From TrEMBL:
<dbReference type="GO" id="GO:0016491">
    <property type="term" value="F:oxidoreductase activity"/>
</dbReference>
<dbReference type="InterPro" id="IPR036812">
    <property type="entry name" value="NAD(P)_OxRdtase_dom_sf"/>
</dbReference>
<feature type="domain" description="NADP-dependent oxidoreductase">
    <location>
        <begin position="12"/>
        <end position="311"/>
    </location>
</feature>
<keyword id="KW-0560">Oxidoreductase</keyword>
<protein>
    <submittedName>
        <fullName>Aldo/keto reductase</fullName>
    </submittedName>
</protein>
<dbReference type="InterPro" id="IPR023210">
    <property type="entry name" value="NADP_OxRdtase_dom"/>
</dbReference>
<dbReference type="InterPro" id="IPR050791">
    <property type="entry name" value="Aldo-Keto_reductase"/>
</dbReference>
<dbReference type="Pfam" id="PF00248">
    <property type="entry name" value="Aldo_ket_red"/>
</dbReference>
<dbReference type="GO" id="GO:0005737">
    <property type="term" value="C:cytoplasm"/>
</dbReference>
Amino acid sequence: MSTANQLALPTMGCGTWAWGNRLLWDYDPRMDDQLHAVFDLCVAYGVTLFDTGDSYGTGRLKGRSEELLGQFANTYRGSNADRICIATKLAAYPWRLTRSSMASACEGSARRLGRKVDLVQMHWSTANYAPWQEWALLDGLADLYDRGEVKAVGLSNYGPKRLQKVYQRFRDRGVPIATLQVQYSLLSTYPVSELNVKEICDELGIQLIAYSPLALGLLTGKYSANGPYPKGLRGFLCKQLFPAIDPLLDCLRAIARSRQKTMAQVALNWCIGKGAIPIPGAKTLEQAKQNIGALGWQLDAGEMAELDRVSESLDKQMVQNIFQTR
């Protein structure tokens, strides 16, 4: 385990974007018992970081992910209960313009969780479209740490230039940045390979968190150029990326076979080998078990290099988050 300030972070976490999202992930409240079982299994196996956001959910279900996490965390009595870390991201909505708006947002998250937020993160930077809005929100984020309302503060979708500016401002206030979360996988290497965020994070003592480490399921082997594809945005991505990503899937499949692992486990282990904490999602016990199978072993240098080589040779990669800054 690595320690960031007052935060004990595990080798891998669990992303909960799908918990409440009907639009992209077909959430249904009848899934809640299964999601509860997923939570319990993850914590029991040391996957104790759960990442959410105050915007997670669809329509009237906005905030549903936080509500479910609160219910599950507050009733859990098994092993590793004292290590549970709930990380939420506060959205930079256009109507959030003041320091106090972040305090109100965090209060709303804590209310839905039924407990304090452990790690509060800025969901995205407004630097690409409304840079004048951002500093007040960041100052409000730092205020939460100063007042002891959260254990730690993190950022999401920040590139190195913006990250260093925020780091300097927070350092002057005595507020450490614990984590930086970026889209990072074998199909989305841009933040690390081109922006060098991992090097900057290492220099500044910030832990890198990798969201979408399985590229919305494309690295699991579940989908192929022949289809069928999932509905909506993920189906659109499949159509855009297949068959260009077949060489990477073939490489993952070969390593998985030799290791007696799944393709998803190899993709997650690659993230871990890169020094990031992957936060794959899980809606079922089977998915949670598969994710947990990425722990307790390590790809060797040759396997890592081969995956890097094939990933870098691809003509196409995942589309980048529009809010990712440089």
